[in-house]
Amino acid sequence: MHLLHQQKALHAFTKENQIQFESWAPFGEGKRDIFTNPPVKAIGDKYGKTVAQVILRFITQEGVVAIPKSIHPEQMAENFAIFDFELSPQDIETLRQMDEEKGLFGWNV
Q1: 10 in Cβ contact with 109 (< 8 Å)
Q2: Which residues sit opposite 2 in a β-bridge?
Q3: What is the DSSP string of 52-105?
Q4: What is the CA 58 to chain-centroid distance, rounded?
Q5: Which helix (H) or strand (E) holds 22?
Q6: Boundaries of each NADP-dependent oxidoreductase domain copy (predicted)?
Q7: pTM (2 d.p.)
Q8: In 19-53, which positions are buried (b, 16+ CB within 10 angstroms) versus exposed (e)?
Q9: What phi-psi label fits residue 90: left (phi over 0), alpha (psi between -120 and 50 degrees) or beta?
Q10: What does the alpha-carbon distance between residue 44 and residue 23 come to, in Å, rounded to a whole number?
């Protein structure tokens, strides 16, 4: 699960069955220029946050556990700094609409 492949049906199934949905690659492995995505960057600018922080906050507000990978201490600290703001309903809807319903490697689950 990541911003561009939100797996909404699977997420609904996990909620209905009390299974915690997780995102093991919340940034989609950095593919599709996710860190320079103009709509996500615009949302980040509004809150004074980075694209990564907007994505992690979105995933968290959707009730998903995000597991971002980083070996850089400054990125790890940035990834934790997502609990001092909340995305508006309009921003949530904008991010939901970014779902391409296609996995990173061309297959769907």
Answers
A1: yes
A2: 5
A3: HHHHHHHHHHTT-EE----S-HHHHHHHHTTSS----HHHHHHHHTT-----TT
A4: 5
A5: strand 22-23
A6: 30-99
A7: 0.90
A8: eebebebbbbeeeeebeebeebeebbeebebbbbb
A9: alpha
A10: 20
- Lookup: tokens for 86: 């909340």
pLDDT in tens, 26-77: 998 777 789 999 999 999 999 999 999 999 999 999 999 999 988 999 999 9
The residue type found at 62 is E
Task: List Cβ neighbours of 6 (8 Å cut-off, separation of 6 or more).
Answer: 62, 96, 99, 101
CA distance 27 to 57: 12
- Interior angle at CA 63, CA 20 and CA 56, nearest 5: 110
